[in-house]
Specification:
Neuraminidase; four-stranded antiparallel sheet; 8% helix; globular; disordered N terminus
Length: 322
Protein backbone atom coordinates (compact mmCIF):
# COMPACT_ATOMS: atom_id res chain seq x y z
CA UNK A 1 0.00 0.00 0.00
CA UNK A 2 1.40 3.40 -0.98
CA UNK A 3 1.69 6.40 1.26
CA UNK A 4 -1.12 8.06 -0.72
CA UNK A 5 -3.36 5.02 -0.28
CA UNK A 6 -2.68 4.93 3.45
CA UNK A 7 -3.43 8.64 3.76
CA UNK A 8 -6.66 8.25 1.80
CA UNK A 9 -7.73 5.33 3.96
CA UNK A 10 -6.95 7.18 7.19
CA UNK A 11 -8.86 10.22 5.95
CA UNK A 12 -11.86 8.03 5.10
CA UNK A 13 -11.76 6.34 8.53
CA UNK A 14 -11.44 9.67 10.29
CA UNK A 15 -14.38 11.04 8.33
CA UNK A 16 -16.49 8.02 9.25
CA UNK A 17 -15.58 8.41 12.91
CA UNK A 18 -16.49 12.08 12.88
CA UNK A 19 -19.81 11.31 11.20
CA UNK A 20 -20.51 8.60 13.77
CA UNK A 21 -19.71 11.04 16.59
CA UNK A 22 -21.94 13.67 15.03
CA UNK A 23 -24.73 11.13 14.65
CA UNK A 24 -24.34 10.03 18.27
CA UNK A 25 -24.36 13.65 19.39
CA UNK A 26 -27.55 14.28 17.40
CA UNK A 27 -29.11 11.17 18.93
CA UNK A 28 -28.32 12.53 22.40
CA UNK A 29 -30.46 15.55 21.53
CA UNK A 30 -33.45 13.32 20.81
CA UNK A 31 -35.41 12.38 17.70
CA UNK A 32 -38.92 13.29 16.54
CA UNK A 33 -41.48 11.30 14.62
CA UNK A 34 -45.04 12.00 13.49
CA UNK A 35 -47.72 9.63 14.74
CA UNK A 36 -51.49 9.20 14.53
CA UNK A 37 -53.31 12.53 14.52
CA UNK A 38 -56.17 13.51 16.81
CA UNK A 39 -59.69 12.94 15.51
CA UNK A 40 -60.41 16.63 16.15
CA UNK A 41 -58.17 19.66 16.04
CA UNK A 42 -57.88 21.34 19.41
CA UNK A 43 -55.92 23.88 21.45
CA UNK A 44 -56.32 25.38 24.93
CA UNK A 45 -56.99 21.77 25.91
CA UNK A 46 -55.75 19.34 28.55
CA UNK A 47 -53.84 16.10 28.00
CA UNK A 48 -52.96 13.36 30.49
CA UNK A 49 -51.28 10.00 30.30
CA UNK A 50 -52.61 6.97 32.18
CA UNK A 51 -51.48 3.38 32.42
CA UNK A 52 -53.66 2.45 29.46
CA UNK A 53 -53.51 5.43 27.14
CA UNK A 54 -53.39 9.16 26.52
CA UNK A 55 -56.50 11.32 26.92
CA UNK A 56 -57.15 14.67 25.22
CA UNK A 57 -59.89 16.68 26.91
CA UNK A 58 -61.72 19.97 26.30
CA UNK A 59 -60.22 22.90 24.39
CA UNK A 60 -61.37 24.62 21.23
CA UNK A 61 -61.39 23.66 17.57
CA UNK A 62 -62.53 25.13 14.23
CA UNK A 63 -66.18 24.86 15.31
CA UNK A 64 -65.77 26.13 18.86
CA UNK A 65 -65.63 24.07 22.09
CA UNK A 66 -64.59 20.43 21.67
CA UNK A 67 -66.77 18.09 23.72
CA UNK A 68 -65.33 14.79 22.50
CA UNK A 69 -62.78 13.23 24.83
CA UNK A 70 -60.28 11.24 22.79
CA UNK A 71 -58.12 8.33 23.90
CA UNK A 72 -54.93 7.08 22.25
CA UNK A 73 -54.18 3.38 22.79
CA UNK A 74 -50.73 3.37 21.23
CA UNK A 75 -52.03 2.99 17.65
CA UNK A 76 -54.88 5.41 17.03
CA UNK A 77 -57.12 8.04 18.58
CA UNK A 78 -60.81 7.37 19.17
CA UNK A 79 -63.62 9.16 20.99
CA UNK A 80 -63.94 7.64 24.47
CA UNK A 81 -66.64 9.83 26.02
CA UNK A 82 -68.25 13.27 25.92
CA UNK A 83 -67.34 16.15 28.20
CA UNK A 84 -70.09 17.24 30.62
CA UNK A 85 -71.41 20.75 30.12
CA UNK A 86 -70.98 23.13 27.20
CA UNK A 87 -67.22 23.03 26.88
CA UNK A 88 -64.08 24.50 28.44
CA UNK A 89 -60.90 26.15 27.29
CA UNK A 90 -57.62 26.26 29.23
CA UNK A 91 -58.61 23.83 32.01
CA UNK A 92 -56.02 21.69 33.77
CA UNK A 93 -56.07 17.94 34.26
CA UNK A 94 -54.33 15.43 36.52
CA UNK A 95 -54.53 11.70 37.14
CA UNK A 96 -54.88 9.84 40.43
CA UNK A 97 -55.12 6.07 40.00
CA UNK A 98 -57.73 5.33 37.34
CA UNK A 99 -59.40 8.72 37.59
CA UNK A 100 -58.85 11.85 35.53
CA UNK A 101 -59.60 15.16 37.24
CA UNK A 102 -60.53 17.98 34.85
CA UNK A 103 -60.12 21.17 36.84
CA UNK A 104 -61.56 24.63 36.22
CA UNK A 105 -61.01 26.38 32.89
CA UNK A 106 -62.76 29.17 31.03
CA UNK A 107 -66.36 28.70 29.95
CA UNK A 108 -66.67 27.64 26.27
CA UNK A 109 -64.58 30.12 24.21
CA UNK A 110 -64.75 33.01 26.69
CA UNK A 111 -62.38 34.21 29.40
CA UNK A 112 -64.99 33.64 32.11
CA UNK A 113 -63.41 31.25 34.66
CA UNK A 114 -65.13 28.28 36.26
CA UNK A 115 -64.50 26.42 39.52
CA UNK A 116 -65.98 23.02 38.64
CA UNK A 117 -64.00 19.78 38.88
CA UNK A 118 -65.14 16.86 36.73
CA UNK A 119 -63.89 13.36 37.49
CA UNK A 120 -63.73 10.69 34.78
CA UNK A 121 -63.34 7.05 35.82
CA UNK A 122 -61.41 5.41 32.97
CA UNK A 123 -62.63 1.95 34.00
CA UNK A 124 -66.37 2.60 34.19
CA UNK A 125 -66.34 5.53 31.72
CA UNK A 126 -68.56 7.48 34.11
CA UNK A 127 -68.32 11.15 35.09
CA UNK A 128 -68.83 12.56 38.56
CA UNK A 129 -68.20 15.85 40.37
CA UNK A 130 -65.50 16.57 42.92
CA UNK A 131 -65.32 19.49 45.32
CA UNK A 132 -64.99 22.70 43.30
CA UNK A 133 -61.88 24.84 43.33
CA UNK A 134 -61.66 27.40 46.15
CA UNK A 135 -62.22 30.06 43.47
CA UNK A 136 -62.83 30.05 39.69
CA UNK A 137 -59.74 30.01 37.49
CA UNK A 138 -58.53 29.15 34.01
CA UNK A 139 -55.16 29.02 32.29
CA UNK A 140 -53.62 27.31 35.31
CA UNK A 141 -51.41 24.21 35.59
CA UNK A 142 -51.83 21.02 37.59
CA UNK A 143 -49.85 17.93 38.49
CA UNK A 144 -50.16 14.97 40.85
CA UNK A 145 -47.62 14.69 43.65
CA UNK A 146 -47.68 12.17 46.51
CA UNK A 147 -51.29 11.26 45.71
CA UNK A 148 -52.56 14.84 45.79
CA UNK A 149 -53.22 17.35 43.02
CA UNK A 150 -51.46 20.70 43.01
CA UNK A 151 -52.87 23.61 40.98
CA UNK A 152 -50.92 26.82 40.41
CA UNK A 153 -51.37 30.16 38.70
CA UNK A 154 -53.93 30.97 36.02
CA UNK A 155 -56.42 33.78 35.94
CA UNK A 156 -59.73 34.80 37.43
CA UNK A 157 -62.23 37.15 35.85
CA UNK A 158 -60.02 40.18 36.53
CA UNK A 159 -56.33 39.27 36.50
CA UNK A 160 -53.69 36.57 36.62
CA UNK A 161 -53.24 34.97 40.03
CA UNK A 162 -50.48 33.35 42.10
CA UNK A 163 -52.74 30.95 44.00
CA UNK A 164 -51.42 27.47 44.85
CA UNK A 165 -54.21 25.04 45.75
CA UNK A 166 -53.88 21.40 46.79
CA UNK A 167 -56.62 18.78 46.44
CA UNK A 168 -56.77 15.58 48.50
CA UNK A 169 -58.86 12.88 46.74
CA UNK A 170 -59.13 10.92 49.99
CA UNK A 171 -61.04 13.73 51.73
CA UNK A 172 -62.40 15.55 48.66
CA UNK A 173 -61.07 18.81 50.09
CA UNK A 174 -58.93 21.69 48.89
CA UNK A 175 -56.45 23.72 50.90
CA UNK A 176 -54.34 26.74 50.08
CA UNK A 177 -50.54 26.56 50.16
CA UNK A 178 -47.78 29.12 49.61
CA UNK A 179 -48.60 31.09 46.45
CA UNK A 180 -46.21 31.53 43.56
CA UNK A 181 -43.75 34.40 44.00
CA UNK A 182 -45.60 36.18 41.19
CA UNK A 183 -49.02 35.98 39.59
CA UNK A 184 -48.87 34.25 36.20
CA UNK A 185 -51.07 32.40 33.77
CA UNK A 186 -50.23 29.52 31.44
CA UNK A 187 -47.20 28.17 33.34
CA UNK A 188 -45.97 24.60 33.02
CA UNK A 189 -45.80 22.43 36.14
CA UNK A 190 -44.05 19.13 36.91
CA UNK A 191 -43.23 17.10 40.00
CA UNK A 192 -39.54 16.22 39.97
CA UNK A 193 -37.82 14.47 42.87
CA UNK A 194 -39.01 16.03 46.11
CA UNK A 195 -40.13 19.30 44.55
CA UNK A 196 -42.54 20.99 42.19
CA UNK A 197 -41.19 23.05 39.30
CA UNK A 198 -43.29 25.92 37.91
CA UNK A 199 -41.85 26.93 34.54
CA UNK A 200 -42.48 30.08 32.53
CA UNK A 201 -45.91 31.67 32.21
CA UNK A 202 -47.25 35.08 31.32
CA UNK A 203 -49.40 37.99 32.42
CA UNK A 204 -50.96 40.41 29.97
CA UNK A 205 -48.47 40.93 27.15
CA UNK A 206 -45.46 39.85 29.24
CA UNK A 207 -43.89 36.39 28.99
CA UNK A 208 -41.78 34.98 31.81
CA UNK A 209 -38.80 32.65 31.86
CA UNK A 210 -38.60 32.29 35.63
CA UNK A 211 -38.58 28.84 37.17
CA UNK A 212 -39.87 28.47 40.72
CA UNK A 213 -39.16 25.40 42.88
CA UNK A 214 -41.57 24.42 45.66
CA UNK A 215 -40.31 22.78 48.86
CA UNK A 216 -43.27 21.06 50.54
CA UNK A 217 -41.50 20.64 53.87
CA UNK A 218 -41.07 24.39 54.19
CA UNK A 219 -44.15 25.34 52.13
CA UNK A 220 -41.92 27.75 50.26
CA UNK A 221 -40.98 28.63 46.68
CA UNK A 222 -37.42 29.49 45.63
CA UNK A 223 -35.81 30.52 42.35
CA UNK A 224 -34.61 27.83 39.96
CA UNK A 225 -32.64 28.06 36.70
CA UNK A 226 -34.46 30.40 34.32
CA UNK A 227 -35.49 29.50 30.78
CA UNK A 228 -36.21 31.64 27.72
CA UNK A 229 -39.57 33.41 28.31
CA UNK A 230 -42.69 31.55 27.16
CA UNK A 231 -46.25 30.71 28.10
CA UNK A 232 -48.45 27.68 27.25
CA UNK A 233 -45.43 25.38 27.02
CA UNK A 234 -45.58 21.67 27.79
CA UNK A 235 -43.35 20.00 30.37
CA UNK A 236 -42.68 16.43 31.45
CA UNK A 237 -40.15 14.43 33.43
CA UNK A 238 -38.47 12.06 30.96
CA UNK A 239 -35.17 10.18 31.06
CA UNK A 240 -34.64 11.43 34.60
CA UNK A 241 -34.81 15.11 33.63
CA UNK A 242 -37.33 17.90 33.10
CA UNK A 243 -38.08 18.62 29.44
CA UNK A 244 -39.95 21.70 28.17
CA UNK A 245 -41.68 21.79 24.77
CA UNK A 246 -42.80 24.70 22.62
CA UNK A 247 -45.14 27.40 23.87
CA UNK A 248 -45.74 30.93 22.71
CA UNK A 249 -43.77 34.16 22.63
CA UNK A 250 -46.06 37.17 22.70
CA UNK A 251 -43.10 39.47 22.10
CA UNK A 252 -42.14 37.60 18.92
CA UNK A 253 -45.79 36.96 18.02
CA UNK A 254 -44.95 33.34 17.27
CA UNK A 255 -45.48 29.78 18.38
CA UNK A 256 -42.28 28.14 19.56
CA UNK A 257 -40.66 24.86 18.62
CA UNK A 258 -37.82 24.95 21.16
CA UNK A 259 -37.14 21.94 23.37
CA UNK A 260 -35.08 22.33 26.55
CA UNK A 261 -33.72 19.77 29.00
CA UNK A 262 -32.78 20.64 32.58
CA UNK A 263 -29.62 19.19 34.12
CA UNK A 264 -30.72 19.50 37.73
CA UNK A 265 -27.24 18.79 39.13
CA UNK A 266 -25.66 21.60 37.11
CA UNK A 267 -28.73 23.82 37.19
CA UNK A 268 -28.48 24.36 33.44
CA UNK A 269 -30.88 24.08 30.52
CA UNK A 270 -29.63 22.62 27.24
CA UNK A 271 -31.27 22.72 23.84
CA UNK A 272 -32.60 19.49 22.37
CA UNK A 273 -33.81 18.74 18.85
CA UNK A 274 -36.63 21.23 18.16
CA UNK A 275 -40.21 20.18 17.50
CA UNK A 276 -41.04 19.58 13.81
CA UNK A 277 -44.25 21.59 14.32
CA UNK A 278 -43.91 24.69 16.48
CA UNK A 279 -46.97 24.98 18.73
CA UNK A 280 -48.41 26.87 21.64
CA UNK A 281 -50.65 24.99 24.06
CA UNK A 282 -48.04 22.27 23.49
CA UNK A 283 -49.52 19.63 25.77
CA UNK A 284 -46.90 16.95 26.52
CA UNK A 285 -47.16 13.57 28.27
CA UNK A 286 -44.97 10.51 28.65
CA UNK A 287 -46.42 7.23 27.43
CA UNK A 288 -44.60 3.96 26.72
CA UNK A 289 -41.09 5.37 27.06
CA UNK A 290 -41.54 8.38 24.81
CA UNK A 291 -42.96 11.88 24.94
CA UNK A 292 -46.12 12.76 23.01
CA UNK A 293 -46.87 16.40 22.21
CA UNK A 294 -50.58 16.44 21.45
CA UNK A 295 -52.48 19.10 19.52
CA UNK A 296 -52.01 22.80 20.13
CA UNK A 297 -52.10 25.91 18.00
CA UNK A 298 -49.74 26.42 15.08
CA UNK A 299 -50.59 30.14 15.08
CA UNK A 300 -49.77 32.57 17.85
CA UNK A 301 -52.25 34.96 19.44
CA UNK A 302 -55.32 32.71 19.15
CA UNK A 303 -55.96 32.48 22.90
CA UNK A 304 -59.41 31.26 24.00
CA UNK A 305 -60.85 30.54 20.56
CA UNK A 306 -57.97 28.93 18.68
CA UNK A 307 -58.89 26.52 15.89
CA UNK A 308 -56.06 24.30 17.12
CA UNK A 309 -54.51 21.42 15.22
CA UNK A 310 -54.69 17.62 15.21
CA UNK A 311 -50.88 17.25 15.08
CA UNK A 312 -49.28 14.65 17.35
CA UNK A 313 -45.53 14.12 17.38
CA UNK A 314 -43.34 11.86 19.52
CA UNK A 315 -39.94 12.56 21.00
CA UNK A 316 -37.44 9.83 21.91
CA UNK A 317 -34.14 10.33 23.66
CA UNK A 318 -31.38 7.89 24.58
CA UNK A 319 -31.79 7.70 28.33
CA UNK A 320 -28.95 6.99 30.78
CA UNK A 321 -28.56 3.25 31.18
CA UNK A 322 -30.23 2.38 27.84
Amino acid sequence: MTHVDRTTRLTTLLGAMLMACASAHAADKGKWQSTASLVQSRAAHAVVGTRTGIYALAGTGPDGPVLDVERFDGRKWAVDTKLPGNGLNAPAAAVVGDRIYLIGGFDTTTNVPTAGVFVYDTRTKAWSDAAPLPAPRGGHAATTWNGRIHVIGGGNSQSTIADHSEYDPATNQWRELAPLPRAEGSPALVAFGDALYAIGGRSGSSDYGDVYVYDARKDRWSAGPAIEPRGTAGAVVYCGAIHVFGGESQEKKSSLGDVFRLDADKGEWSRMTPMPSARNFARAVVYRDRVYVVGGSLKAGQSHSSAGSPVVETFVEKCPGD
